[in-house]
Amino acid sequence: MPKAVLWDVGNVIVRWNPRTLYEKFFEEPAECDRFLSHVCTMEWHVRHDLGVTFEENRKPLLDEFPEYAEAILAWEQRWWEMFSGTIAEAEAAIEALHARGVPQFVLSNMSHEVFDGITAMSPAFRRIEGFVISANEKLMKPQPEIYQRACERFGCAPEDFLFVDDSAWNIAAAAELGFDTLHFTDPAALRPALESRGLL
């Protein structure tokens, strides 16, 4: 049975979706789809998670798509409008685990430039004992090395952790390394999963 919880952040503790911002930019859904699939794509965004700054990462896009300059700049300038609050079930679980004395850590793909702002979004982050953030490590999930680094940093073996993430790819990589895993798709299923493992 796991003795600690290793949390992802985006869409596990806080809700993040670029569409929440860009639906304000584009009246036509098809134009919003085109922008997010051909301009500011997830493939482009992962460079932020690997430590490339917003300023550096947008330069090629501004050159290639000058007609979208305002929208490209908004990825940083209006970044916080991509969030739609916290996930109450995760916050409650973090507080309950803390009350039980269960160690809790974070392993997240995240830009170092937004870390402080994201962790200020919920008091639950104060219960987290340590963070491994992809931009600081120049590694990202699902690369095996970042999971191994989290184990080393937090002094636990993979089987000591329940790893909670919304990405099936990240979950599969963790399971292959020996982590107990929970694919976070339904917030209501979180507490029963913790209880079934004796963590709550």
How does the overall form come out from the CA principal axes?
A: globular
Terminal CA distance: 12 Å
Determine the strand fraction and express it as a percent band. Answer: 5-15%
Q: How are the strands of the biggest sheet laid out side by side?
A: 5-4-1-6-7
* CATH homologous superfamily (4th level) name of the largest domain: HAD superfamily/HAD-like
Poorly predicted segments: none
What structural category do the secondary elements indicate? Answer: alpha/beta
- Give average pLDDT, whole number: 98
SSE ordering: EEHHHHHEHEHEHHEHEH
Please tell me the total number of domains.
2
What profile does the largest beta sheet have? 5 strands, parallel
Could you tell me the number of beta strands?
Answer: 7
Gyration radius (Cα, Å) is 18 Å
CATH class of the largest domain: Alpha Beta
Helix proportion = 40-55%
Number of helices: 11
Based on the coordinates given, report the CATH architecture of the largest domain.
Answer: 3-Layer(aba) Sandwich
CATH topology category name of the largest domain: Rossmann fold
